[in-house]
Specification:
With about 160 residues, the protein is an alpha+beta fold. The protein is about 25% helix and about 50% strand. Strands 2-5-4-3 form a four-stranded antiparallel β-sheet, with no helix packed on it. It has a two-stranded antiparallel sheet with strand order 1-6.
């Protein structure tokens, strides 16, 4: 009789131990992202450059008639031409021709481009820990409790039958 009780206890302990599940270890996942952003900005500026006045003179022996006689551009022995900001003046003096070129102050319009580079470095580190939780539906838990209670009732009933208690 004690042998049957011993076998019954071993069977009940086997059912209880067999229903346990192993632990699930958490897993880790690390991600490192490094981003380099280069921004180029170009700024356009209008500007004006002023150039200083310049002049050139040259004196040469004459190969033309005195006082430029016969030339239609000559007025009182002087030839003058003007184009924009440049002036030309030719005069006859002592059997020589004097040539004077004068350029007034020049203005140049220009566009300047300024370029700026900006670097941004962004480092993002993400660490993800995944911990799996075993989900047991509510109905399974209720049935497990009812089964455990039912096993205890059967155990007490068998103990009464074998008259141990």
């Amino acid at each position: 009789m004690k042998g049957k009780l011993f076998v019954l206890i071993i069977i009940l302990v086997g059912f209880c131990v067999g229903s346990c599940s192993k632990r699930i270890a958490p897993t880790e996942n690390s991600v490192l992202r490094d981003t380099l952003t280069i921004t180029q900005t170009v700024i356009e500026r209008d500007t004006v450059f002023f150039l200083p006045q310049s002049s050139v003179s040259y004196n040469m022996p004459s190969v033309v008639p005195p006082n430029f006689v016969g030339l239609k551009d000559a007025k009182k022995g002087i030839i003058e031409k003007q184009d924009g900001q440049a002036n030309l003046k030719m005069t006859y003096f002592n059997k020589n021709v004097q040539i004077d070129c004068i350029c007034d102050t020049a203005r140049l319009k220009a566009k300047l481009y300024d370029t700026f580079l900006k670097e941004n470095r962004k480092t993002v580190s993400e660490k993800t820990i995944i911990k799996k939780v075993k989900y047991t539906p509510r109905i399974v838990k209720i049935l497990a409790w009812l089964g455990g209670i039912f096993c205890l009732l059967i155990g007490f009933k068998m103990l009464r039958i074998f008259k141990v208690v």
